[in-house]
Amino acid sequence: MRLTYIAKALSIVLGYINIAFIFPIIVAFIYHDYYSLIPFAVTGLIAWFLSMGLKYSVKGTSELENLNDIKKGEALFIVTVSWIMFAIIVAIPYLFYGISPVDALFESVSGITTTGATIITTYDYPQAFFFWRSFAQWLGGLGIIVLFIAILPQFAVAGRQMFFAEAPGPTEDKLTPRIRNTASALWKVYAVLTIICIMLLVIAGMNPFDAVCNSMSTLSAGGFSPNSLSTMGYNSNLITWIMLIFMFFAGTSFNLLYNVIKKRNLLLFFKSEEFKLYFFMVLLMSGLITTALVLNNGYSIFEGITHSLYQVISIATSTGSASVDFVQWDMTAKILLFLVMFMGSCSSSAGGGIKMTRWLLLWRTLKAELVRILHPNAVINVKIDNNNVPADIIRQIVIFIIYYFIIFAVGAVLISMIEQNPTIGLAGSITALGNIGPGFETVTGPMGGFASLHIVSKSIMILWMLVGRLEIIPFMVLLQPDFWNFKDK
Fold it and tell me: Which GO terms describe its molecular function (predicted)?
C-alpha cells in the first residue's frame, strides 16, 4: 500500500468532515446556546489541523494530484480508517458535556454506524447536542465515503473502489455508468425522503426541531431521538405510522427507490426478489407478533398491528427506535422479535444486518446443492432477478454469514460472562453487530441504555458496531499479516 495515496485520501476526508460542524453551530446560535459553540468549533479546528498534518507530514502527499489508480487494498484501508477517524472526531464534542471518553466513543460509534444504542441517562442537554447526535447518524446512514464521492471531484474516478469497500454487497449493482453519479443519485433520494418526512411530522403535530432530528434518525435507520421515550413519547398514532413508513423506506434499496421514482412505476418494487422477500418477512413477523400481543398481552387489534409492525420494521432495518416498551411483552413476542434481529434489510439501503439478498442467495445455494446430490451431472445456476450470480459472489456470501455468526457468538459469550447475564450478552452482541440498538433487559431496552455496562462490554460493542457497519469482510482482511505492507509511493 502506498502511504501517499492513503494520506491524501484521509486528508481530504478530514478536511471536509470539519464542514459538518457548521450545522450544530448554527443550531446553537438559533437557540442562543453560546456554550455549545465551543465544542463544535474546537472539534472542527481539530479535524482541519489533522487534515493539514496528514497532507504535509507524509512526503509527496501534497504534490499528488489525483487518486485515480488507487488499489483495492488501499481503498479498504482508507474506508476503515476513515470510519475510525470519523468516530473519534464525532465523539469529541460529547466530552465537553461531561461524558467520559469511553461513553463518548460509544455514543459516537453507535450514532455514525446508525446502531442507536445509547449511554445517555438524562436528556437534560441543549438542542445542539441532540441535533449533532441525529445529524451524525444521518451522515453515517449512506456512508461518509459515498457522500464524498458524490460531492468531491477528487474521488470521481478513485471512488469506485472505495464505494464498494464502504458498502460491499452481494452484487456490485450501480445505477449509472459513473460511480459518482450513482453516489449522487442515492444521496438525492436520501435527502428528499428526509425532507418529506420532516414536513409530514410537522403537519402531524411534532415540533420542528424534533421533526428534523427524528427524520434524520429515521431515514438513516439510526433511531436516536431527542425524546427520552423515543417515538412512544409523542403519544400519537399518526406520528408512529409516518415514522413506520419512512423506516420501511430506509430499509429498502435506494437503488430500487431511485429507479421507481425515475420511471414512476411502483410495480418495479415487486419485480425485485429481494424487496418481495423483505416485504413478506415484515408482514409475516408482524402478523405473528400481533397475534401474540392480542392473545397474551391484552392489545387491541389496531394497537397490536401498529406496534408489532413498528417494532418489526425498526429492528429489521436496524433503526432501533420504539413505539412501545417491548421489554414488557410476553416471552413469545420477545422471542419472535429477537429472531427479527437476524433478518436484516435490503442491500444498498441505510439498514444494517445480514441483508435480504444474502439470505435469498444462501437459500437458493443450499437448494441447488441438494439437487446436485441427487443429480450430479445437472447444471444448476443460482439466479436472482433472472440474473446468474457468479460463484465467487456466492462464496463470499457463505463466508460472510459464517463470520457473522462466529463474531456474534464470541461477543455474546464475552458480554454474558462480563455482565453475568446471558440476555444482555445475546442481545448486546447482535444489536451491536447488526447495528440494531436496544436489547431486551430493562436496563438495555428501548427505554433504557447501555451506560451501566462494564467498560469492557462497551469496548466490545464499539468494535462490533464498526465491524457490522463495514460488513465484516474489510475488517477480516485487515487481520491478514500480508495486508500490512506499506511503501512511500
Answer: metal ion binding; potassium:chloride symporter activity
